[in-house]
């Protein structure tokens, strides 16, 4: 049989031809895929460099803004959850196990504040002095004046110092590190993605919302706190990214720790209307207590501002240790104090002693530089005040006795709302954390006289702004500058311009410019704006050159305003990545028109 007629040979030949054709097809297909991938990369880079920045530079809500906020919030939430998990692990070993004085004296944990003070000092010394500032007041300063750009180097110091402070039973709150770490995480990513400055601020405050929600499982309170305390205004293009981030923080907290409402153990009963006159008197007392607390804390802060750090930390550690030996319930964030306030048969004398101890421990810790927040301790102080008011009132009006739980919640709401100048955030936070809507009306009623007594009667101010004044950090921004900060330069820049590299062509280009800006680089490599000025007489047009400054396309209209406003004339050029890559020009006339339009 001939080889060509062999069936086996034909089958093998067919298989080889199929294999060859398949290989050849793959060889042809591979370059096509590479080209498609390269084109996709080019398109993506172009989109991120131009279209995305154009969207984010505008002061309006967009899907791109919300998606970025959500992605950054996931990262910020992970950082906060890591912090919480480490804190839970540390508290398992360091939290005082007994609240009995005789058992506590021999407990080595009673001396932990002194150890914590030393550890905080070591972390502070290891870090750079340039990045030693931290806390809510510092974050507020960076949001107001630096678009929320917080140095990444400050994150490590905040993380470990706050971990040591909370782990060694200082009277500080968890929201301080949550706000700082959430802000740093989101703003760092925003800067890495080279987003416009106006959107960096939105990412920063969104990260703060994620941090608060991941800490307290209170997403709505996180949104209100950011708008009321940090941003201090309501804008729809702020609201949705902040809300998405708060949802992300709360969901991540529930996935790890469960859907827990920290204060739902407090028994709250609906209070009759005939109790409201007593509540009004309680509001006056709470307002006085809040004003006293703020004054004392700020006095200690100002006094110890220039002391060596180690002295301040050791003094705070010594005071906390002494208080813990006698009244260990006064230590920690405020959970022990709340537990005493809502116990079955609380002793009035014990609650009064515990109130003074808690206030002293908190003032010593925060005022002398222990890193941490205020909300937790304020909850403890407010709960004690509310319980004391209820017990004293019950001596005269026994019908008040069943409402001790409600009074504790009212006290917590008033203390946080007045001390932080955040009454709405305080109300919503307690509503979410107690999971009981019956607190709304009495808490609102009490907060009003408390706020008026403190702010009008005793001239109290927000404790955060007072802390900024003591630290010498500015936070005030003029309304026109604040409005211009909300829009990036890409929203207003004129993309119609000409760059001339040859002097011989300059005059011809100017004649044909048709309203377009003409730029030229001089011998010193400085860009100049070139124009033809028509003299009043009949002489020929005069060629004029003016140096022109450049701004990155990630800056806002405020930076252009700062450059152009002194002379009320001129232009600035806008560049992308490097000053040689000019993408637009903004004139004073265009900027003034934008200001007068009422759109900012």
Automatic annotation (TrEMBL):
It is found in: Membrane. This is Chloride channel protein. It comes from the Bacteria. SUPFAM superfamilies: Clc chloride channel. Its main location: membrane. It is a multi-pass membrane protein. Coiled coil: none annotated. PANTHER family: CHLORIDE CHANNEL PROTEIN CLC-E. Keywords: Chloride, Chloride channel, Ion channel, Ion transport, Membrane, Transmembrane, Transmembrane helix, Transport. The keyword Ion transport applies. The chain crosses the membrane at residues 65-90, 110-127, 202-226, 238-257, 278-297, 309-327, 348-370, 376-397, 404-431, 437-455.
């Amino acid at each position: 049989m001939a080889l060509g007629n062999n069936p086996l040979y034909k089958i093998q030949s067919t298989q080889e031809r199929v294999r060859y054709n398949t290989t050849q097809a793959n060889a042809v297909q591979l370059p096509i895929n590479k080209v498609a991938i390269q084109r996709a990369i080019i398109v993506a880079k172009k989109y991120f460099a131009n279209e995305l920045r154009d969207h984010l530079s505008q002061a309006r809500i967009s899907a791109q803004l919300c998606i970025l906020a959500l992605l950054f919030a996931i990262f910020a939430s992970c950082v906060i959850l890591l912090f919480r998990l480490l804190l839970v692990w540390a508290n398992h070993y360091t939290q005082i196990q007994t609240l009995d004085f005789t058992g506590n004296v021999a407990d080595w944990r009673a001396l932990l504040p002194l150890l914590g003070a030393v550890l905080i000092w070591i972390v502070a010394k290891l870090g750079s002095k340039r990045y030693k500032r931290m806390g809510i007041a510092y974050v507020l300063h960076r949001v107001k004046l630096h678009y929320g750009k917080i140095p990444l180097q400050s994150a490590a110091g905040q993380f470990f110092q706050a971990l040591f402070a909370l782990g060694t039973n200082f009277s500080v709150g968890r929201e301080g590190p949550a706000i700082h770490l959430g802000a740093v995480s989101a703003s760092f990513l925003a800067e890495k993605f080279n987003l416009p400055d106006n959107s960096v601020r939105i990412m920063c405050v969104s990260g703060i919302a994620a941090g608060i929600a991941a800490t307290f499982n209170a997403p709505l309170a996180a949104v209100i706190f950011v708008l009321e305390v940090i941003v201090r205004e309501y804008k729809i293009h702020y609201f949705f990214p902040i809300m998405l981030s708060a949802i992300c923080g709360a969901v991540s907290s529930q996935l790890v720790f469960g859907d827990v409402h920290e204060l739902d153990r407090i028994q709250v009963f609906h209070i009759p209307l005939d109790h409201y006159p007593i509540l009004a008197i309680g509001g006056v007392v709470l307002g006085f207590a809040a004003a006293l607390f703020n004054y004392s804390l700020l006095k200690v802060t100002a006094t110890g501002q220039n002391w060596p750090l180690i002295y301040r930390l050791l003094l705070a550690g010594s005071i906390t240790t002494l208080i813990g030996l006698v009244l260990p319930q006064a230590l920690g964030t405020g959970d022990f104090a709340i537990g005493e306030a809502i116990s079955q048969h609380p002793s009035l004398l014990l609650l009064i002693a515990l109130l003074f101890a808690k206030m002293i421990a908190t003032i010593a810790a925060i005022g002398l530089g222990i890193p941490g927040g205020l909300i937790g301790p304020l909850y403890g102080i407010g709960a004690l005040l509310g319980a004391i008011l209820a017990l004293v009132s019950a001596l005269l009006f026994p019908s008040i006795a069943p409402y001790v739980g409600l009074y504790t919640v009212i006290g917590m709401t008033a203390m946080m709302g007045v001390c932080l100048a955040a009454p709405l955030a305080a109300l919503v936070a307690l509503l979410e954390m107690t999971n009981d809507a019956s607190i709304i009306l009495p808490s609102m009623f009490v907060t009003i006289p408390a706020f008026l007594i403190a702010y009008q009667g005793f001239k109290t101010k927000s404790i955060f702004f007072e802390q900024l004044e003591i630290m010498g950090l500015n936070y005030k921004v003029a309304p026109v500058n604040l409005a211009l900060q909300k829009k990036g330069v890409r929203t207003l820049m004129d993309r119609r311009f000409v760059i001339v590299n040859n002097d011989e062509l300059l005059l011809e280009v100017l004649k044909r410019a048709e309203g377009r800006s003409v730029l030229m680089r001089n011998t010193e490599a400085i860009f100049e704006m070139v124009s033809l000025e028509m003299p009043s007489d009949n002489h020929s047009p005069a060629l004029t050159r003016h140096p022109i400054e450049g701004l990155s396309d990630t800056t806002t209209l405020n930076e252009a305003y700062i450059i152009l406003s002194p002379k009320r004339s001129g232009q600035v050029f806008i560049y992308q990545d490097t000053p040689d890559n000019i993408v637009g020009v903004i004139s004073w006339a265009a900027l003034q028109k934008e200001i007068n339009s009422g759109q900012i």
